[in-house]
From TrEMBL:
It comes from the Bacteria. It holds the Pfam family PDDEXK_2. InterPro entries: RpnA. This is Transposase. The lineage of its organism: Bacteria, Bacillati, Bacillota, Bacilli, Bacillales.
Length: 292
């Protein structure tokens, strides 16, 4: 079987969920993500920026989020992130605000503004104080827990948390369609997941079957592969840069801790030799601290 694209790479994700002809795939994912009741199921979705392959090759800074609009005007932004830049809550609020405010036209009434939703799929644990893999945030009054408005809705979907639940058999893609779609993003690295999803696709889910077939097709497209590999390399480089920055930050923090320990000892009248033995600082470094 052909090696399939890693759908956690934003370019590959958009190739499957954010291009013309695949609207039914996106609609199925959104129905699962938004947990919509049967009578409110999304049947039509309009992609706001479905063309990106050519532009991406010319501009590596192209935004690879999926932007969509529903029949009732609801705007949705889907972003998938491999690397933790520690800014997701501010990032998603920024994208939400841009999508929400961009609806406003001259002479338009505020009451005409439509709900705006951001969905963040992340390949790392982000909300450490929450055990759920899918968290939804809205605007609530703090004491009464009263919803102010449904205009703002922010989703976080943490793939590592889902995988833990999958391995513990706490979730079942046969019963939960969101689990089904999110596991698809992990399937390129897991044969068991691939097998289970292919069985579901053949037995009961025609849209999932279409998604798997399309995934197979784009994974063999030379033009897509070229852009995909470039994007994957960029993400790997970004990950390495983030790790280096974290290491520098940890080292800086360690040195600052040692410095503060030494200053505390100096204030207590402890001699240089003892301070040096306990902190590893040279006597010259300790003398410099004494004269600060």
């Amino acid at each position: 079987m052909t090696k399939r694209l890693d759908l956690r790479v934003d370019f590959a994700f958009k190739s499957l969920f954010g291009t013309h002809g695949n609207e039914s795939i996106l609609a199925a994912f959104l129905n699962a993500a938004l947990r919509l009741p049967e009578e409110k199921k999304i049947t039509t979705v309009h992609l706001l920026d479905p063309h990106f392959n050519k532009e991406y090759q010319e501009d590596k800074r192209s935004i690879l989020d999926v932007h969509a609009q529903l029949e009732d005007g609801t705007r949705i932004n889907i972003e998938i992130q491999l690397n933790n830049k520690h800014d997701m809550e501010k990032r998603t609020l920024y994208y939400w605000s841009k999508m929400y405010s961009s609806q406003m036209k001259e002479g338009m009434d505020y009451g005409e503004l439509c709900q705006t939703i951001t969905i963040n799929i992340v390949n790392f644990r982000y909300l450490s104080h929450i055990n759920h893999y899918h968290s939804v945030f809205q605007l609530y009054e703090r004491e009464e827990k009263l919803l102010l408005t449904d205009m703002l809705e922010i989703h976080f979907m943490e793939l590592p948390k889902l995988l833990i639940k999958w391995r513990r058999k706490e979730v079942d893609p046969r019963e939960d369609q969101l689990v089904r779609w999110l596991l698809l993003l992990e399937a390129s690295e897991d044969e068991e997941i691939t097998q289970v999803l292919e069985e579901i696709a053949m037995q009961e889910d025609q849209v999932l079957k279409k998604a798997i077939d399309e995934w197979e097709r784009v994974s063999q497209d030379p033009e897509v592969l070229l852009a995909y590999e470039a994007r994957r390399k960029a993400l790997l480089d970004e990950k390495s840069a983030l790790k280096r920055a974290e290491s520098r930050g940890e080292e800086k923090g360690r040195k600052e801790t040692i410095k503060n320990m030494a200053l505390g000892m100096i204030q207590k009248g402890i001699d240089n030799e003892t301070i040096s033995d306990l902190t590893g600082l040279t006597k010259e470094e300790i003398n410099n601290l004494r004269h600060q």
